[in-house]
Amino acid sequence: MSALLETQALVAYYGDFQALFGIDAEVREGERVALIGANGAGKSTFLTSIAGMRKSAPESIRFDGSAIGALGAADVAALGIALVPEGRRLFPSLSVEENLSMGAFNRRKGPWDLARVYELFPVLSEKKNAPATSLSGGQQQMVAIGRALMANPRLLMCDEISLGLAPAVVKEVYAALAVVCGEHGVSAIIVEQDIELARTMSDRAYCFTHGTVSLAGASADLSREAISAAYFGV
Amino acid sequence: MNWLDTVIQGTLLGGLYALFAMGLAVIYGVMKQINIAHGDFIVLAAYVALGIVAATGLHPFLVIPLAIVVFGAFGYFLQRTVLNRTLGSDILPPLVVTYGLSIVIENVLQQTQSGDPKSLKLGSLETASLPLGGGLAIGAFPLIMLVTAIVVAIVLEIVFNRTRLGMAFRAVSDDREIASIMGVRDRRLFGYATAISFAVIAIAGVFMGIKFTFSPSLGPNFLLYAFEAVVIGGMGSFWGTLAGGIILGIAQAVGFALNPGWGILAGHLVFLAVLLVRPTGIFARSA
Questions:
Q1: Could you give the ipTM of this predicted complex?
Q2: Is residue B82 part of a domain?
């Protein structure tokens, strides 16, 4: 399988502070990749760099064969890279349905539209005219995922979508994600604090420590001990 | 003194203030920028309309569509070439740059148009009026002004709440970064917002030029009225801005009726009272 996304020596800075120290990673077509690591290890920075929310060296990020590191966020979105951002970041002035429609702003062709998203998350169709931020945490997360799906992405990046959700809701959200990746061949990068969940949800995993990759491999082969060791950088 | 008449006149005048204010509200609503030169652009629009009338002999109302196109394009160009460069986390650069534009516009107008008061002439429509009975009458032109303000509010409400462009405006206003990862090209979008603002400025400029005799130095007053109307009405809907303009107009009319020196002051006092009692504005949606 060829790599859909590939990063080479990807670095990122916040002012003088260096957050990523040369990340080499790849996501193959149809693959689900988990990113695990402690807070501040650079997982979110990695995702926002790929999404074009911060500029990188052109060749340090390649998508479908072309260098995209220097592209702006809107140009990256047009290629079919969608992000479910940390903390959901729904548009508070917009209704549920308008939030979902914003996801389709690029008008990329594909299987996902409002009807399909409502099929996946039936509860959202009942609340489609409500302000997005009036929903419960789990429902807001569904809106955030639905909004990303509306872009008909080839690569879906999810940043801590289980954070603050009840365990039953987490299960529901990940079941939906499995459907999305399984049925439609969408590639995914999943940032997840829950290591067990991350392992079971992914084909491969990268462990980030202090802005570097400390461990990588097929999720099934990674032992809990190895992950713990990499997690804490010991 | 007839209070009903005073309130009616104030309401009609409020239509003009609402026209001043809605252009300001568009830019603030989308970009959270204050255009300090807003009033000067209104004055500039009146001079441009005067120039077109002088060159073509057209009726001032017929100049409005042309002025909208010219000013809309100018607004887009100004945003893309100048104002977008001032955007960022610091709120000072847009204020300083538009303040500078304000000074430049006023002085260029002084140099080229002189400080003599000018006005746009309407002909017979200027004095036409509709009798309401009971000795009351409504001037035809002030009525057209108020109706125009209502139509502009309706159009802006539709654009912002019922169109894809308006949805993107609100999304960018909420969260510029997330809107951009949805594919919104924010700099271009800001150009469209300023184009819409300047289209409203063009309309406001023509009506101002008919209503008042104007000179290059009036811009800052108009900015103040616009700002007061926006604050009184509260952000969130153009109906609020329209109401804010009308409340300001009534306050000034009542002040004038009490004492010719109190009109403008009465408007400022109502503005300050609203700031004290309800700082988000009377008709604000919960921010």
A1: 0.92
A2: yes
